[in-house]
């Protein structure tokens, strides 16, 4: 089996490396981000109290965010979020108070000035913990925005936050498409979703093969990036069992990935995700044409369940040093 075969199965074609522009203003923060990627343990985070029901967002509560992060902090000291509003405004401050070292703030809709303003405010108020900003999650893949439009938005945000590392998030194969070349040079670091479970060979593969696939994908992305490359989403959901998913397999996958991809300032991965989100199985999905309700695994990506109880993958992680509130 060719471990990297899935990279090209999606129809991607190789693009030349980006034309990287020297940005002296962002160099100190990018160096700090490299250090965090090498030494901190990141997890993607959506508050357990934030839900989307019939397209309506139920905002997160600050007290629930504090409870979430207090559970995560013994094992994680870096967060990657998806939204800057709907209650997420409280995340950077609470994270700093609990001793998290890094938060990469996600902006779900970069065309929404309210969301962009919230991310900028967080970067200004919590420079010691906000390590970067990601504009959008799978915008190109879901055809919600063109690469040219997104590149423009990144450039506009850079005018307002010249010293903050900026990125976006796409499934890995999108970065190899020719249209992505105009975007890549605008990004200070690369966030990629790399899911072995969506490859046609996954069901019959062992976890060593799945983990090596992630390593290979990041290696192939490295020449396309002006900075560090991070697998923002990767992993194995814990249900349904009928699809071959289980808590034991999730733990086994991460065990193999840790052995093959020790974090560094150049390449790293985040655990995906912090908590189960039952509502996600019925929310609209990014994939064009996807039907809500037919992807039950979407509810079970967490290393903790929806009641914040750790699963095997979380229990295997050794505790981090005692948190130092910032």
Question: What order do the helices and strands come in, and which of them pair?
Answer:
Layout: H1 5-9, H2 27-39, E1 42-45, E2 51-53, E3 56-58, H3 62-72, E4 78-81, H4 91-97, E5 102-107, H5 113-125, E6 130-137, H6 147-160, E7 166-171, H7 181-184, E8 190-193, H8 207-221, E9 229-233, H9 247-260, E10 267-269, H10 312-315
Parallel strand pairs: 1-4, 4-5, 5-6, 6-7, 7-8, 8-9, 9-10
Antiparallel strand pairs: 2-3
Helix pairs in contact: 8-9
What does this molecule look like?
This protein is α/β, with parallel strands linked by helices and 326 residues long. The chain has one domain: TIM Barrel, CATH 3.20.20.80. It has helices spanning 5-9, 27-39, 62-72, 91-97, 113-125, 147-160, 181-184, 207-221, 247-260, 312-315; strands at 42-45, 51-53, 56-58, 78-81, 102-107, 130-137, 166-171, 190-193, 229-233, 267-269. The chain has an eight-stranded parallel β-sheet. Strands 2-3 form a two-stranded antiparallel ribbon. Strand 8 (190-193), helix 8 (207-221) and strand 9 (229-233) form a beta-alpha-beta unit. Helix 8 crosses helix 9.
Distance between the termini: 48 Å
- What is the count of β-strands? 10
The CATH architecture: Alpha-Beta Barrel
- How much of the polypeptide forms β-strand, as a percent range? 5-15%
Q: Which structural class matches the secondary elements?
A: alpha/beta
Q: Strands of the biggest beta sheet: in what spatial order?
A: 1-4-5-6-7-8-9-10
> Total number of helical segments?
10
What is the domain tally? 1
Order of helices and strands: HHEEEHEHEHEHEHEHEHEH
What is the level 1 CATH name?
Answer: Alpha Beta
Radius of gyration: 18 Å
- Fraction of residues in helix: 25-40%
Mean of residue pLDDT values: 92
Major sheet: 8 strands, parallel
Low-confidence stretches: 1-12
CATH topology: TIM Barrel
Q: Which homologous superfamily in CATH is the superfamily?
A: Glycosidases
């Amino acid at each position: 089996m060719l471990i990297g075969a899935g990279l090209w199965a999606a129809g991607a074609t190789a693009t030349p490396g980006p034309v990287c522009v020297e940005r002296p203003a962002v160099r100190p923060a990018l160096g700090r981000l490299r250090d965090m990627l090498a030494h901190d343990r990141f997890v993607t985070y959506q508050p357990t109290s934030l839900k989307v029901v019939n397209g309506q967002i139920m905002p997160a509560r600050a007290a629930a965010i504090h409870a979430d992060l207090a559970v995560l902090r013994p094992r994680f000291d870096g967060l990657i979020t998806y939204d800057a509003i709907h209650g997420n405004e409280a995340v950077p401050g609470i994270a700093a108070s609990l001793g998290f070292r890094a938060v990469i703030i996600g902006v779900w809709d970069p065309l929404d000035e309210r969301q962009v303003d919230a991310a900028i405010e967080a970067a200004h108020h919590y420079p010691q913990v906000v390590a970067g900003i990601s504009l959008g999650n799978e915008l190109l893949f879901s055809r919600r925005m063109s690469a040219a439009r997104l590149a423009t938005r990144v450039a506009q945000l850079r005018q307002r936050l010249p010293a903050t590392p900026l990125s976006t998030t796409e499934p890995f194969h999108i970065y190899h498409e020719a249209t992505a070349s105009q975007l890549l040079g605008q990004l200070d670091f690369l966030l990629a979703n790399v899911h072995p479970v969506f490859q046609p060979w996954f069901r019959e593969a062992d976890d060593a093969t799945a983990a090596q696939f992630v390593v290979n994908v990041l290696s192939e992305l490295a020449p396309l990036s002006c900075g560090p490359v991070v697998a923002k989403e990767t992993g194995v959901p814990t249900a349904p069992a009928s699809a071959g998913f289980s808590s034991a397999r999730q733990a086994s996958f991460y065990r193999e990935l840790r052995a093959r991809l020790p974090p560094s300032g150049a390449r790293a991965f985040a655990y995906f995700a912090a908590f189960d989100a039952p509502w996600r199985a019925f929310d609209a999905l990014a994939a064009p044409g996807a039907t809500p309700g037919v992807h039950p695994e979407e509810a079970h990506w967490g290393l903790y369940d929806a009641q914040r109880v750790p699963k095997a993958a979380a229990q295997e992680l050794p505790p981090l040093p005692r948190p130092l509130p910032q």
